[in-house]
Design a protein that fits this description.
The chain has a 6-stranded parallel sheet with strand order 3-2-1-4-5-6. It is built from 18 helices and 6 strands. The chain has helices at residues 2-22, 26-50, 57-77, 83-108, 121-148, 154-162, 164-187, 193-214, 222-244, 247-270, 275-279, 305-313, 324-329, 332-344, 363-370, 381-384, 406-409, 460-473; strands at 317-322, 348-353, 378-380, 393-397, 429-433, 453-457.
Length: 474
């Protein structure tokens, strides 16, 4: 049976790796997910075989049932708009589970005194590392979920963001406390009842640090934060696997940790910001004036669905730039219908996807794919930026910060240096927005006040549908 468990573990993490490789392309992503899911099922079966002599089958069955009940319904019911929140929440649950495992192993081993593993150092170090990182990931992910779900009061959130320096100091103190407690517990594993209080203190200190790390981070940085928290959860799972001598947990955790770290680094580069700058700093600003005047004195030009339809109908090329506003309005199907009408008239339609558009990596790609937009029509920033100067009309649907020319032109802007989509180089720009409020970063966008830009105000789905109807009437 021992050999069978080992073989099943090898099969499981081989499927994890193969499934992850499928996520490199949209055409193979679904298949990759299914393969990785089957690999996880194989790993669960291997664990059940490994603990076949246990007397706790009722608890195991109960745990499996709770997992299914709490996991499947939200995954089925959650709209694509709220997928970032679901990812943040599920990621947090993983980190919290690892922290609880570490606590349980501490109690089960009588404060690390009854360690069966030889040598005991991997067990103790792995458990304590998992406790710290798992707690940080759990509580940090809960804050990320609350921010994405807009459960936090905006005024309260601004207080946290504006006091980022104070939270940095608090986090350094909490990190020292957590590591100090871990070192003390690890070096003084004597089964003393006081150790139970110390491990609780460690979990609390790490948990508060998780809260304090994410609370001051600005909204525009949340995609990077979600990716980073995902990497931390993977590392904590690997540490727990080291403590439990579970090869599947070690390999799966390292895969998640490594891929999450790579993705975090890529997204930070896409924003031209270092990861420490994101974690230890934030940016934000005041909204643009509701009346349509910018802080610099510019004004906006409103347009109508009929005018937009005429502009696009007689264009050679149209580029659609989706953002979180498209997701909120669930406008992807309406955009696809509009694009089909334009293509029937001989207009070439492309989609420009910024790496951090939306609230999580790949958010826009998933939404457009759901509406059967061809994968080849979705262009990454580096591939599409050279096209804007040859584009007749760019239509921006809810994308604020990733189209802000201040990132390129204004050295005083907090986002200066961040690579953006060069929408402002188009011959004409149409921006769909509900109002003149700023983007998630809280920074005014000069694009809205440019001479070549017209604003189409209203719900993105309704406005795109109105443009579609006007196209049909032409």
């Amino acid at each position: 049976m021992g050999y069978l468990v080992t073989i099943l573990y090898i099969v499981a993490f081989s499927m994890f790796i193969y499934g992850l490789s499928g996520l490199t392309g949209p055409k193979t992503a679904v298949r990759g997910n299914y393969i990785a899911a089957v690999g996880m099922l194989v790993a669960v079966v291997a664990v059940l075989i490994d603990v076949r002599n246990t007397d706790n089958w009722l608890l195991i069955a109960g745990g499996l049932l709770v997992g299914v009940v709490l996991g499947v319904p939200p995954a089925l019911r959650t709209k694509m708009t709220a997928m970032p929140q679901l990812v943040a929440l599920f990621n947090g649950v993983g980190g919290g589970t690892v922290a609880l495992i570490a606590w349980a192993e501490f109690l089960n081993s009588d404060g690390f005194t009854a360690v069966e593993a030889v040598p005991s150092a991997p067990f103790i170090i792995g458990s304590l590392f998992a406790a710290i990182i798992g707690s940080v990931s759990f509580w940090g992910s809960l804050v990320a979920f609350a921010k994405l779900q807009e459960l936090l009061n905006k005024k309260v959130e601004k207080v946290f963001v504006s006091n980022a320096k104070a939270f940095q100091l608090a986090n350094m103190i909490l990190a020292l406390v957590s590591v100090g407690l871990a070192v003390y517990i690890g070096l003084n594993a004597d089964g003393d009842p006081q150790s139970s209080l110390l491990i609780l203190g460690l979990l609390v200190a790490a948990g508060v640090m998780g809260l304090f790390v994410v609370l001051p981070i600005g909204g525009a940085d949340m995609p990077v934060v979600i990716s980073l928290l995902n990497a931390l959860t993977g590392l904590s799972a690997a540490a727990a696997g080291l403590a439990l001598n579970n090869q599947a947990m070690i390999v799966a955790g390292m895969i998640v940790g490594a891929s999450g770290t790579i993705l975090t680094n890529l997204m930070a580069k896409a924003m031209n910001r270092s990861i420490p700058a994101i974690i230890f700093g934030s940016f934000g600003g005041e909204d643009a004036a509701a009346g349509g005047a910018s802080a610099s004195g510019g004004t906006v030009k409103a347009t109508s669905a009929a005018d937009v339809a005429i502009q696009m109908a007689y264009a050679n090329q149209v580029i659609v730039v989706p953002g979180y506003g498209l997701a909120v309005a669930q406008a992807q199907h309406a955009v696809k219908e509009m694009a089909s009408l334009l293509e029937a008239r001989g207009v070439e339609v492309k989609y420009a996807i910024h790496p951090v558009a939306g609230r999580m990596p790949g958010h826009m790609n998933v939404l457009l794919a759901e509406a059967d937009v061809e994968y080849d029509a979705m262009k990454e920033m580096d591939d599409i930026n050279g096209e804007f100067s040859r584009t007749d009309v760019s239509i921006v649907i809810g994308a604020n910060d990733v189209t802000n020319p201040a990132a390129r032109n204004d050295p005083s802007s907090p986002i200066h240096g961040m690579p953006i989509l060069n929408v402002d180089e188009s011959r004409s720009v149409i921006v769909l927005k509900r109002s003149m409020s700023s983007g998630y970063a809280g920074i005014e966008n000069p694009l809205f006040f440019a001479d070549t830009t017209s604003m189409l105000f209203g719900d993105a789905k309704k406005m795109v549908s109105a443009v579609t109807e006007e196209l049909k009437a032409l």
